[in-house]
## 1
Amino acid sequence: MADISARTKCEIYTRVMGYYRPVSHFNNGKKSEFYTRAYFSEQALENSRFIEQFS
């Protein structure tokens, strides 16, 4: 089993205004907005079920 103390921090990057920037460099307000985002899922759309049924 891996030792937890041997782990390294994983840096999360996001695209901002055409370039990638680490989330750790965001201010507190921007960090909270990033972590509360709802991500788009095409599978959740009603249209995708319709397309699967009739294609």
## 2
Amino acid sequence: MKPTIIFLHGGPGFQDYLKPFFEELKNDFECIFYDQVRGPEIKIENMLFQLDEIVSSISGKIILLGHSWGAVLATEYAGRNQSKLSGLVIMSTGLSDKHWKDEYYKELEALGLENAEPEQIFLTPEEVDLGETILDKTWDTFSEETFNSIKHSYLEKYDVTPLLKSLKIPVFNIFGEKDVRFPARVSKTFSSYNSAIMDYQIPNAGHFPFLLSSGRMQIYKILKGSFL
């Protein structure tokens, strides 16, 4: 039986954008890509319930892979249900609301990006040169009502640090070397919180470390080497 990877996209409020980059893994894994529940009164509990329904329908080895907000959601779920999981992969994420904001604005100032366009924050020059339109495609699916609901009820006070410290399952922390959104210098410290956390830096990558083919190949190698 193939292990199952459940992919959790960022946001909150977007639809899935991970499938085109990771569906190649379906030869080795059962891959589940889904759109997180959206609406004007969505709470973190609604998203965790949706995720648990998916997890509970699967037998065998289950790995959660979350990107950005999706990694926060995955960590929140793992902290409450780690006995149901074989591993957690967090990609381009932060530790807490206050810590993220402080480090993010510090990074913008250090790089002179206070008035930057989104591409300069989320993508590296190498990624921009790909002509990849992931930002446009992602924003086209954005639900502001979902974002605002989660922002006020959860994001403004979230802190996954205690959860990361409590996990006993393997945790793979993947981040872009040049990520500005969740600064790489912070991501490099995650393993200091828990011996179960392994840090992996993707060279020349930004907030979407899977855009460059070299980054995807490295991530594929991490997943296959860890869970097959």
## 3
Amino acid sequence: MVSFEYVLKDREGIHARPAGVIVKTAKEFESDITIENKGKKVNCKGIFAVMSLAAKCGEKVIISAEGNDEKEAVEALSSAFEKNL
């Protein structure tokens, strides 16, 4: 398993547009990918699950991937977070 932490910088947190980018990026990989905020962990491949976290600006999220392409998945998602959140 590979993971990284990210502190949200977007003043609106994870809203529809960045959630869509996260899901689209996660679906490119076969690994199981989760995102966690305040103790709640959800599947990164579901838009409603990601938005249900209601993660706000300044909060820390933890993204984890487990599977054959976990390293590539974490690298791609890290880049997506930097560009969109």
